[in-house]
Request: fold
Amino acid sequence: MRARQGRDTADANGFARMLEACLDLGVYWIDHADIYDDGAVEILHGEAAQALAPGARAQLRLITKCGVRFAAPRQPGVRLHHYRSDAAYLTRQAETSLQRLGVEQIDLYLLHRPDYLMQAEETAKAMEALVESGKVARFGVSNFSTFQVDALAARTDLALAANQVELSPFHTAPLDNGQLHQARARDMALLAWSPLGGRRFLDGEDETARRLRHTLEAMAARCGGEPGLDSLALAWLRTIGAIPILGTGRIDRLQRQVREMTALTLDAQDWYEILEAARGARVP
Reply:
């Protein structure tokens, strides 16, 4: 989302090096959206990918999202923030993203936000047409409630592949609102955006941030002081099967986070200790 402001990713050469680092780590999925920097991040990716060897480029799997409309220079006539899910818009945005990214197929295409005006049957037919044309491999949603997922899924034989939701120790609602359990029941990937709550782990001074830092610092000490607090929080998400979306613009931080979180194994008490710190209360 903020790639063009990242220390290592602001230009095509740097972004290409980030993509190479991802592949070296076994990270193949890259998350985009048509509104990130008003489309400029998809363009940056397309330029960067051209610098990769063809074999490396073929390993990348791309997620992008559509449906959010912002008033922006590249969106004339848009006077306010709103959502769209009509067939013509979904098709046009998919084709625009394909052109920007420089690929023939979007591996996972997500409806970015629930559209309260969505005509589920029309949206589903547009999704099916994009799959049948080969422009999209799989469809999913982002920020959808369980009811909204069910309403869309009822209109199509396509299996929704993912729900991308806010999930971190700072935002644990998906544990109880059905999103986690629905993802498991439907075999959908649960993609966690803002998995570290922005910078709150590092410099948040609210009570929750201080309590979590204290708990994670003690846990890191028990692990020999090796893992960063961020890696412990990412491992907490992986323990429940959620896939964290890492937003760092620094290659060295990405490498450390991936290596540490994949090496960590939290037992049940570790996991619940972090949950209690996050909520400031014991579980019932």
User: Anything to note?
Assistant: The first strand starts at residue 29 and ends at 31. The mean pLDDT is 95. The chain is about 45% helix and 15% strand.
